[in-house]
Amino acid sequence: MPPIAPRIAIVGVAGRMGRTLVAAVEQDSNATLAGGVVEPGSSLAGADIGELAGLGRRGVVAADSLEAIVDDFDVLIDFTTPRVSLANLAFCSAHGKRIVIGTTGLNDEQLAELDGYRDRVPMVFAPNMSVGVNLTLKLLETAARALGDEGYDIEVIEAHHRHKVDSPSGTALKMGEVVAESLGRTLKEHGVFTREGQCGPRSDTEIGFATVRAGDIVGEHTVMFATEGERIEITHKASSRMTFAKGAVRAARWVAGQQVGRYDMQDVLGLKG
Ligand SMILES: NC(=O)C1=CN([C@@H]2O[C@H](COP(=O)(O)OP(=O)(O)OC[C@H]3O[C@@H](n4cnc5c(N)ncnc54)[C@H](OP(=O)(O)O)[C@@H]3O)[C@@H](O)[C@H]2O)C=CC1
Ligand SMILES: O=C(O)C1=N[C@H](C(=O)O)C[C@H](O)C1
């Protein structure tokens, strides 16, 4: 039987997503806020994680290592960096914990490393935890099948805040992959990530990516299907990080009842098949 209200710990608890995750766990009556971790040596170690999140004291202090809270949690939520998330995945595997990873920007080698844990840890790994984006992925599958081989050019455009360190976003890549797979293409072969100078006209089958980084944009993604005479755009706009955080808490509650395996938000939301 899965725990009724799994005890959730959050890594990167002082980050943009970390602080929002604290609030999301607090709002969920079926989840327990059990711990938070900041970077080793951080001056925020020992701070109350409710205060870090602007909620006031919650009586749970930030640790600067997972070892320090190993007995306190069932599921770890990690929105940090690829290197840190992989180390935390290894920790969860060694200690019989479950994990939800939202970190993006993993390279091929790091993705292969993460995949190596699919038979050892119950994990949810997804570049976007919002219900809206995951529904959008289903719409893209349908649109690509209907339009993609009928002379429609496909472009993925994303915009994020000025602090984002990876590009294109994990969500943009996922959208591109869904479209490519629906058409029997691959992003390795058909993805076009830069256009500059005399780069010539586009090919019929390429899938182009364009990135905006500016101000405080939370996250916006558009996939455009354009042909002579018409253009279809499927757009998702996030206006609050709470949409990602609520999805991550839902994933944590869900994975608390799962066997080992690598899952994504389509599994959590029952959107597969
Ligand atoms: N899947 C999804 O739905 C979403 C995914 N993301 C992804 O989540 C990731 C984080 O985004 P965001 O919150 O904006 O980034 P931030 O930089 O605001 O947060 C990351 C946090 O991780 C902390 N950190 C770094 N190393 C460690 C460590 N060893 N132990 C504990 N904490 C550590 C950082 O601390 P310090 O600042 O001290 O280095 C920082 O507070 C990105 O990859 C982003 O793309 C974001 C939103 C939604
Ligand atoms: O870094 C962010 O902020 C976000 N990152 C994710 C991504 O790379 O797709 C998801 C979301 O759009 C916000």
Question: What keyword list fits this structure?
Answer:
273 residues, Dihydrodipicolinate Reductase, domain 2, binds NADPH dihydro-nicotinamide-adenine-dinucleotide phosphate, Rossmann fold, elongated, seven-stranded parallel β-sheet, 2 domains, 12 strands, alpha/beta
Describe the structure.
- This is 4-hydroxy-tetrahydrodipicolinate reductase.
- Pathway: Amino-acid biosynthesis; L-lysine biosynthesis via DAP pathway; (S)-tetrahydrodipicolinate from L-aspartate: step 4/4.
- By secondary structure, this protein is an alpha/beta fold.
- It is built from 9 helices and 12 strands.
- The strands form 2 sheets. A 7-stranded parallel β-sheet has the order 3-2-1-4-5-6-12, with helices on both faces.
- Strand 10 and strand 11 form a beta hairpin.
- Helix 5 packs parallel to helix 6.
- The longest helix has 17 residues.
- Bound molecules: NADPH dihydro-nicotinamide-adenine-dinucleotide phosphate (NDP) and ligand LZUJQKHR.
Distance between the termini: 26 Å
Q: Can you count the helices?
A: 9
The side-by-side strand order for the widest beta sheet comes to: 3-2-1-4-5-6-12
* Low-confidence runs: none
Derived structural class: alpha/beta
Which ligands are bound? NADPH dihydro-nicotinamide-adenine-dinucleotide phosphate, the ligand O=C(O)C1=N[C@H](C(=O)O)C[C@H](O)C1
Number of domains: 2
CATH-defined fold name of the largest domain: Rossmann fold
The rounded Rg comes to 20 Å
Query: What helical percentage do the residues reach?
Result: 25-40%
Q: In total, how many beta strands?
A: 12
Order of helices and strands: EHEHEEHEHEHEHHEEEEHEH
Mean pLDDT: 96
What percentage of the residues does DSSP assign to strands (E)?
A: 15-25%
CATH architecture of the largest domain: 3-Layer(aba) Sandwich
- The name of the CATH superfamily of the largest domain reads NAD(P)-binding Rossmann-like Domain
